[in-house]
Amino acid sequence: MQTNPRIQGIVEKLKQAGCRITPQRLAILEVVTESRDHLTAEQIHALVAQRFPTTSLATVYKTVNLLRDEGELIELGFSGSAGTRYDGARPAPHPHLICVRCNRILDPEIRLFDELPGELTESYGYRILSHRIDIYGICPECQAAESRSQ
Amino acid sequence: MQTNPRIQGIVEKLKQAGCRITPQRLAILEVVTESRDHLTAEQIHALVAQRFPTTSLATVYKTVNLLRDEGELIELGFSGSAGTRYDGARPAPHPHLICVRCNRILDPEIRLFDELPGELTESYGYRILSHRIDIYGICPECQAAESRSQ
DNA sequence: GTTCGTGCAAATCCTTTGCAGCGAC
DNA sequence: GTCGCTGCAAAGGATTTGCACGAAC
Fold this sequence. Notes:
Strand order of the largest sheet of chain A: 4-3-5
Structural class of chain A: alpha+beta
Order of helices and strands of chain A: HHHHEEEEHHEH
Strand content of chain A: 15-25%
Number of domains of chain A: 2
Oligomer: homodimer
CATH architecture of the largest domain in chain A: Orthogonal Bundle
Largest interface: A-B, 39 and 39 residues
CATH superfamily of the largest domain in chain A: Winged helix-like DNA-binding domain superfamily/Winged helix DNA-binding domain
């Protein structure tokens, strides 16, 4: 029995798209929508395994891609060691604040950006669909750790 | 004989860092700093091959990573089919306007962003190093192509 | 009962790496 | 002459795919 309205809505949408609601999909859905972190595929797999142990990594990938295509999850690809992260808690585009030392990702509160895309439509004729804003820096904890080790 | 001052400066910096200036590196340097496009590793390789035919893809990767570490080139990782792109023409962070149909990347003129990172230092204690801003949409040409094929 | 989804393993793609020989300095 | 750079081929990691079985509907 699922009481989270967001999840209920996604389940409805998936059903109407002709998708079946398997226990694996439900477990992945719960993990990605309820986590405040920005998880890797491996992390999602590990968390899902606690609730539904036999789920495979391949199924995790298939499901997050499905959710991404449905607009219910954001895929954040990074170059280098940070890899790909998934954000299912807040599917609308929003800025990310990323620590380059520990790779932690924060969601800062900035409204400014949301108005901006509109400007580009007039200037360049683009039809704006979404945007991605990443701010890279060093978090307070890592700054402290660095000054300690110097 | 190299007359481009930007390239001259990078060559100097590399020499002082103990790096050797090989013909391959110089050819790659010219390609990435002079192209207004946001090239893939394959594209860089193809363009360099015109000037210095025996250059390998591995050397392209090694050199762009070197330039990235020196801060002379920006690496733009995308998830999905767009892959990784390199921008050596404008090494300072700046917004990108990306067509989701043809994957073309434009550099829109927006100053607004440059002031913003400072705000985050006070609010979250992060030491801001750089940022990345991507706006996704459909370019005028692809919009026209789509309305034609409907 | 019919599909569709799953899980496994293999395949694929992109990027990095180990190493022998070459070339910049 | 030394040591870093190159190019090859092989390794590596992340993600996708093909297929037979099992499960949702």
